[in-house]
Amino acid sequence: MRIALCNEVLAGMPLEKQCEYAAGLGYDGLEVAPFTLGAEPQKISTAQATAIRATVESFGLVVTGLHWLLVKPEGLSLTSPDAALRGRTLQVMDRLCGLCAELGGKVLVHGSPKQRQVAPGETHAVALSRLQDGLAQAAKYAASHDVVYCIEPLSAKETEVLNTVAQAADVVRAIDHPSLRTMIDCSAAGQSEALSLPELIDLWLPTGLIGHIQVNDPNRRGPGQGEMKFAPIFAALQRNGYSGAIGVEPFDYVPDGPGVAAFAAGYLRAIREAM
Fold first, then answer.
1. What domain count does the chain have?
2. pTM, whole model, 2 decimals?
3. Which residues span the domain enclosing 68?
4. Among 19, 168, 200, 256, who pairs with 182 as Cys (CB 3.0-4.6 Å)?
């Protein structure tokens, strides 16, 4: 299980410094938020992606994947009534699948709650149908680039559409494409799920529908900075044979980005070494 740092935690640093710092803390890789690479990440060329990958790998790291996909360019939506806007959003998703592959990543995590909201005057069913249509296209894009596209369940505080693993799994099963899966974000799951995280992992990992894991506390800080215990979570991942990457994705940086990255690295490294 490789542990990657979500790079927006260090977004105040140039990429080279992000890599140097993360490698020094013992992370295995970076999970990249495309908006940290530029205001229009879909326009990053293959040559530019190759250079970014070389920078990351020069520090002994890898890009494990992409997440927080649709922040930039601004205004994207998969659930908008505007068909042209949905089409532009799909074009960005297609390019991000290619970018992920060019960077050496294996998985894309579609959280982006603001881009999957129920539009004013419309119903949840309409929004869900549009999201499902978009994810069916994303699965095809992902397959063409040999990556996996994951729809992320998020808490009801963030979005009305897909709040639990079971709801996301229903969509994945309906689309029925091997390049589309769901994932578990510990913070969101801790707010939305009836089961504990180890129970959730034991239930869902054997289905083959889980493509990624992100670790953070329900208080939105880093792992180990709240009430959630992560040793049982790692034990559940191990007994179920999880071999993918684990992304460290806090949202509330205490004391700051570099500080939470350092705390999480030490906390998770101790757990991994004790296993």
1. 1
2. 0.96
3. 2-274
4. 168
